[in-house]
Amino acid sequence: MAHSTITPLAQEERETLRSFIADQLGRGNLDLPLLPVVANRVLLLSSDPDADASQLSSLIQQDQALAGQILRIANSPAYAPRTPIVSLQQAITWLGLTMLAGLAFSVSVQSGVFHTTGYEKEVRNLWRHALATGLFGKEIARRIRHNVENAFLCGLLHTIGKPAILHLLSQTPDKSAEPFSWITVESLFEEFHVMAGSKLAAVWQLPDPVQETIRYYQDDQYHQAISPTKGAMITCLAHHLASVILGDSTHDENSLLTLPVVQDLNFYPEDMTALLELRETVKASVECFLP
Amino acid sequence: MTSPTPFDLIVIGSGPAGQKAAIQGAKAGKRVALIEQTREVGGACVYQGTIPSKTLRESALQMVRFLQATEVFEFRMRDDVKITNLMTRLDRVVRAHGKFMKDQLTRNGIDCFHGRAGFVSDQEVRIQKIDGTSALVTAPIIIVATGSRPRVPDNIPIDHEHILDSDSILSLVYLPKSLTVLGGGVIASEYASIFALLGVQVTMVDTADRPLKFLDQELTDEFCEAFEKTGGHYRGGQKIDTVQWDGCSKVTTVLESGETLESEKVLVALGRVSNLEHLNLKATGIHPTTRGLIPVNNHCQTTVPHIYAVGDVIGPPSLASCSMEQGRRAVCHALGLNSGVAPEHIPMGIYTIPEMSSVGLSEQEATAKYGGATVGRARFHEIARGQISGMTNGLLKMVADPKGEQLLGIHIVGEGATELIHIGQMGLLHNMLIDRFIDNIFNFPTLAEAYRVAALDIAKQRQH
Ligand SMILES: Cc1cc2nc3c(=O)[nH]c(=O)nc-3n(C[C@H](O)[C@H](O)[C@H](O)COP(=O)(O)OP(=O)(O)OC[C@H]3O[C@@H](n4cnc5c(N)ncnc54)[C@H](O)[C@@H]3O)c2cc1C
After folding, report:
1. What ipTM goes with this model?
2. How far is it, in rounded angstroms, from Cα B361 to Cα B371?
């Protein structure tokens, strides 16, 4: 990821884009994409206690590309099936309903909701990070005996505002053929992704704890979250862990120990060691879902 | 490392036992250090035990009462009432209680340390802090009140997602359609009846032929009847072979008989283990029992006389009520203070639906001790208050000596049982005769009247 200093030209570009995004987000009629029907229904199904595997598999089957990706993931070495997985129903049994619902959602959102042309590699990294955050979120929740399914979904969607910003950027009136520099984009993420994510989450009617997490997952914010499921706090630490293992963090494993969220979750050094021991498992899962 | 900070008393653990021990020490003018490994004080009682389970129970009861009221008042409630709504209330109650306890400790001038305690020697304790640093404290008296946690049986892969224990059951965000509860003790029975009332299809599985075997059978019979009415099932005499999440939608519990039970979630409530693992007890010379408990004498003194152990860490009765008293008494003993008369008749309160409570001798115990027993019964539906409140079940059972004169025990099942029992407890403490319940006047209409009715039932048997 680029970390060079901003040139005067880039500064000017940033300012223009900044006021464009601020203007867009400030408007009531925000032009954000609709949630694809399949993704929307997958999400509803995954939080419906009456849902079962056959309902989910018939839903996924409606989207050929999605079904293909799911089968590829289920057959990948990280999930090491004993026998080849040939049906969706079998894949669901092997991967688990919640995991699969979350993935189906993210795969279907990635593959077409947002206009992110020119940033394919970066967007892929964003999703890898989101997935790693979801997976770490599950393990953190397990340790503190909070809801595991909820933590996964919160992690997976916490930075949904970032691709949404890229989507908005694709609508700038004077957009040149070249994509904007990633450093500029990142500074816009920094400033706007929470707001964009919150708006999108509201439009898409994502579950309340997910909406709250998107709004408050950052270090200086999670105290404001009130949901007893603690999605924001869990996701905050999961986000840091994901950044460290994927190599896009200013923190190293040792400095993680000093984060206020580690203290607020009451994680002792041995708890953090146990979480970090999962790094290879999480990486392998990320590799297999989003190589 | 700097030299240890001296105190008069160190208490390890801030649950009901540790808290009362620390307060007793402070009230006696001692400088007290209280060490707690979690951020909040209050222990399992506040965060995973008594308070959350009772709040959930109360919310469930209120919801059901409300649903019943909708018929009378002709309005409808939303169909999608979520367990998260019940849990939000729970979160509020727990927070308020935690704050109350913290304030109480601060008011008493107790030095609270956040960290994990481990013995360095029999008078010195290391506090491992969360940031990896540590501090040393020392005192001539040390109270261990580290409590307990759910036991994880080797053959059950608890994942806190599909196969839960009594801590993670509180993390549910929606009600499962079905729940298998493994165990037949207090925690298993309480949660089984709460979830059954909320409309979950609950099956309890245990080796014993009936749940809560230590209670009077008439009480557990009433409980089982009420449990079955809400759709629950009790499968007694069963051993568990394996429990497995199928990775998709259900958990399969295979019994040793070969039978399988399928449910969306499983709650494992098969006992508790003491929290000893961070204490480094070997530095003190104290040896835990084979069941992993700290052995103590009647004063809660361990084999090292200036180290006491109180609460769940020493084993049954594992009740918050008893733990508090043990904490207070241990400190009184250590400081040579008068702790008052030792509690004689400890009531047992079980917050199943319906509630059950018991104090004194059971019919069987009385028969064994006195060669017989006279038993009086009062059914709640025969009492005006019970009829007004629509109570269809509920029983107060009074146990007296063979002549039917001396009160020996009280056993109650039905709403309000855990409150009502204290009348009987006071009677026992004052060696009350059965006739005192007949000669005196109770408010009308109240459930307390059941005492009079049961006493009359005994008196009637006397005449024959
Ligand atoms: C679901 C459930 C329902 C219950 N319902 C009732 C009820 O209705 N009525 C009733 O009377 N009882 C009830 N109980 C039992 C009651 O909660 C316990 O008996 C009581 O909490 C025991 O108190 P304690 O102080 O011994 O331990 P705990 O409450 O377990 O507290 C021990 C504390 O010590 C801390 N600790 C452990 N190790 C260390 C260490 N090395 N260093 C520092 N701190 C440490 C722990 O973090 C904890 O905070 C229930 C329990 C459960 C699980």
Report:
1. 0.86
2. 13
